[in-house]
Amino acid sequence: MPYSTVLKQALNNAKGHVVLVEDDASVRKSVQTLLKREGYEVTAYDSADALLQNLDFRLPAVVLTDMRMPGMTGVELQAKLASLGRDVPMLFSAAKADRRKSLRP
After folding, report:
1. Strand partners, 44
2. What is the reported pTM?
3. How far apart are CA 1 and CA 101, in angstroms?
4. CATH of the domain at 26
5. Domains in the chain, number
């Protein structure tokens, strides 16, 4: 299934709310602007730690997160959210990704 189709399905399932976690300010602003233009409510954070300090986002939501960030990675963020009972759909983005290093079996 094409990435664009997966992204659209996940966003539609989020009922319009996207939690964006991206350490690069220009990428974060661009993605946030694009999603808002498409009608989504966006809550943006510059790190996984910033999101974890503000777990008051409404559900259902989808978390769109960078794979590689200083501190906690996107996969580590997913595990932490699950351990806190915040089992939300996750979408991962990366400029350069190695699937073998990124995904756990």
Report:
1. 20
2. 0.75
3. 22
4. 3.40.50.2300
5. 1
